[in-house]
Amino acid sequence: MDLQTLLKSSGQEHLASHAATLSQVSQNQLQQTLAQWDWDGMPALIDALVLHDGESPCYDDFGPASYYPFPAESAAQEQRYQQAAAIGEVAINAGKVAALTVAGGQGTRLGHDGPKGTYGVSPLRDKSLFQLFAESIRRESELAGRKLFWYIMTSPINDAPTRAFFVENDYFGLATEQITFFPQGTMPVFDLQGGMLLAGPDEPATSPDGHGGTLTALHRNGCLQHMENHGVELLSYFQVDNALTTIFDRTFVGLHLQDQAEMSSRCIMKDHPHDRLGNFGLIDDRLTVIEYSDLPDAMAQLREDDGRLTIRVGSPGIHLINRAFVERLTDRALQLPFHRAVKKVPFLDPETGEMVRPDAANAVKLEQFIFDAFPRAERYVLYQALKERELGPVKNKVGDDSRESAERLMIAEHARWLEAAGHEVPRNEAGEPLHRIEISPCSYVSEADLIANGPDSVTLGSDLYVE
Q1: Across the 467 residues of the chain, what is the mean pLDDT of every consecutive 10-residue run?
Q2: pTM of the shown model
Q3: Sequence-separated (6 or more) residues with CB below 8 Å from residue 181
Q4: CA 222 from chain center: how many Å?
Q5: CA-based nearest residue to 440, from 166, 134, 150, 99
Q6: Backbone angles phi, psi at 372, to 5 degrees
Q7: CB–CB of 114/102 below 8 Å?
Q8: Domain with 99 in it
Q9: Which CATH number do you get for residue 370?
């Protein structure tokens, strides 16, 4: 299909006359970019989500979802967790589990010029998020006796600098074949009348297609085939800005396998009815996530007889996803739905050739959410995580969810590991460690690893780096 026909048949006639003024090279460039999207289905998408607000979901039947509590609430449950951990360890050691990091973001809100994963966060050595994850995978590979794989989803804007960062740091000791970078997909940006915006004469305005686009990106970039070739059956999904992620959680993996789940998640207990988390619950016995902004207040405020919130567990964005499930979801009929976000987007006026920087929201971006995959899963597991031990978000330069808050959480967690291993940690009256502590994931990747393989003694008279 030639460019003019494509534009006119897809409802983008407003760009046809502009395209006719372009050189053949620019026309080819524009057509090549447009070819990546499904224009047969685009008019219906525009009608539903650009010209209209989309269907309003009904949450009347949204009820609480069951989850495995942590810590275990009975001796029998603790035994079940121990059995699950053994099963999970076998799967990890067999190379059936790989890491999957969503790392398309920039460090702009952190005051950092570069990909978010290159931002330094560790208390003493200023290790970047990428380095912490890489060292964890390196140590897990040593424990497994094999090279474990890591898939990193970048974005068009940070793909090149992310790859360069790993090259500059010699992949942090990992073999190059352990890491696969793949770019996130994009979607065209539309004005409020459904017309595609331009970022340049032969360049559509685009935006990332959301963390839900991870699934199609894995397929499009050959990652699913790579996994199949190397025996990877399960993906440990996490976001790049969570400094406390346990990448290979043996108990979580084991529970997922025991229950024959297709997609599972860690969950954290909400402190307040409207905590800024996606809310886990059930609709028609299918696990569903409702964003905090969409949860009706009356439902958010519901409480059980014991005073606990009825809708009480939320998502920290830590999932397990079967490769076979991802393959099934790449079928067009089963693809995740898109959602709309109305934003201010600069654009090129095709009539004047001038860039326009709007003062108000003028455009619709389309994105997919990974949690929309849950209702498509036949079976799931929710396994509780303690917020202070598994969720260390680094999103802001200062205050909550900043490097400073993540450092405090890392120090507290590593102090707990040391005490569990029999070492004394001096604390102040508030119970906080007196000294800054950092345990290198190159050497010890978990409390259990430190207990089994750690040093016989440590001296905590000042800041301590353990390796």
Answers
A1: 85 89 94 92 94 82 97 98 99 99 96 97 98 99 98 97 99 98 97 97 96 96 98 99 98 99 99 96 96 93 96 98 96 84 96 95 97 97 97 96 97 98 96 97 98 94 94
A2: 0.96
A3: 152, 154, 159, 162, 163
A4: 19
A5: 134
A6: -70, -10
A7: no
A8: 58-395
A9: 3.90.550.10
